[in-house]
Amino acid sequence: MGEATAEDAGLRLIAEMHAARERGDGHGAVLAELEYQALGCEMIGSPLYGHILRNAASDAAARGITWKVLRDRTDDPPFTALALRLLAAVHRIVLTGGAPGLARHYPSAGGSAGMDGAWEAFRQVLLSRTDEVAAGTRRPCQTNEPGRAAALVGGFLSVAALTGLPLRVLEVGASAGLNLRWDHFRYVSGDLSWGPTDSPVVFDDVYESAPPLDVAARVDERRGCDPRPQDPGDEDTRLNLMASAWPDQLERFRALEGALLVAARVPAVVDVADGPAWLEAQLAQPRAGMATVVYHSIVMQYLSDEGRARMHHVVMEAAARATVEAPLAWLSFEPGGGGRAHVTLGTWPGGERQLVATAGYHGRPVNWLAKPGADAAGGGFY
Asked: Which side of the chain, N or C, has fewer Cβ within a 10 Å radius?
């Protein structure tokens, strides 16, 4: 399926989800959700999950075991990733040794990602552990994708280069706060590299065009917020995060394992808070001697229209108060066109938000668009 055709199919399935909900057809909404996520998995490199979800949609259409597992979830708010919660509930069972037949198809558990027999093994888990899987789908989709740091790092380093100041980083929707430790990961592109050489998280061969990796930068303060923050030091939390990774994407899986090791030794506070309200408090007074960077990745879709508008208002009000001694930046990684995320960056005083990179939704590949030596963030520091 071509990229444009796939996007058209995705838009059609979103319309079907909305229409089914409006007519009170929970069954139809679940089918459209399963098909939509199957398409998404296929587009961004998980043929195994695409295959499983295609079969799950057919099974649910026939009101089989998939529908039995999901039928109590039809009142869940839209775009809360029901299909991914189903996959994570089963992956958790695999990772804890409870589904050896399916583990043979999951590289994350030492298997190989062959399609032959994968759906039948997945279905068997639904049949044999129906109540456990159904309970697992009640857990929120609380992923934390370290791979996105490979795209965000260019924004942080651009701010450091523009301001010459240490960074104060504030992440909205931080989950377990793994990307609050972005400066403890290593980034490599050809002869260029940035970050500690002994980091267990290394992003190599991810750049189509690399960001400025020859910049000195230091984080002096890191803090985040999330409505349901996850504690990376808790074993159950770590298992949930690992279960949310896609089993046939081992690079993502290993990066997550490494990021959890980093989190165990690098402290970071993640407050229980609503993003816009939290930001308003954090940005109430400019912080002299630091460049404050507000950032988020795949967060805006989970805010209401009112929440997105308020967040924009809060940041723009803070931007108006920014000074050369207390500058502000806004760095975002959010869905764009063509199956890629758009990385945008604005710096103040005197700046505006600009597109500086595109990336895969999980980070890889990254195409840094800003030219070396240019004022990539549109800032007014020079």
From this structure: C
Distances (CA, A) of 198 to 100, 214, 350: 34, 18, 38
Read off the pLDDT of residues 299-343 as tens digits, 9 standing for 90 and up.
Answer: 998 888 999 999 999 999 999 999 999 999 999 999 997 779 999
Helix and strand numbers (H, E) in the chain are 13, 12
Q: What share of the chain is helix, strand, coil (3-state, %, to 5)?
A: 45, 15, 35
The dihedral of CA 142, 146, 150, 155: what is its sign? positive
- Tokens representing 38 are 């199957």
Measured between alpha carbons, how far is 226 from 131 in angstroms, rounded to an integer?
A: 29
Angstrom distance (rounded) from CA 41 to CA 37: 6
Task: Tally Cβ neighbours within 10 Å of residue 284.
Answer: 11
CA end-to-end span of the chain = 47
pLDDT at residue 231, as a whole number: 93
pLDDT at 379: 42
Determine the length of the chain.
382
Q: Which residues contact 325 (CB under 8 A, 6 or more apart)?
A: 286, 288, 289
Is the pLDDT at 381 greater than 50, yes or no? no
Long-range contacts of 299-305 (CB under 8 A, 24+ apart): 299/172, 299/173, 299/275, 299/334, 300/332, 300/334, 301/79, 301/334, 301/335, 302/79, 302/173, 303/275, 303/276
Distance between CA 382 and CA 268 in Å, rounded?
A: 32
Measured over the CA atoms of residue 244, residue 250, residue 253 and residue 255, the dihedral's sign is negative
Backbone angles phi, psi at 136, to 5 degrees: -65, -30
DSSP-based three-state secondary structure for 41 = helix
- pTM listed for this prediction: 0.88
Angle at 170 between CA 195 and CA 228, to 5 degrees: 110
**pLDDT tens digits for range 279-300:** 999 999 989 999 999 999 999 9
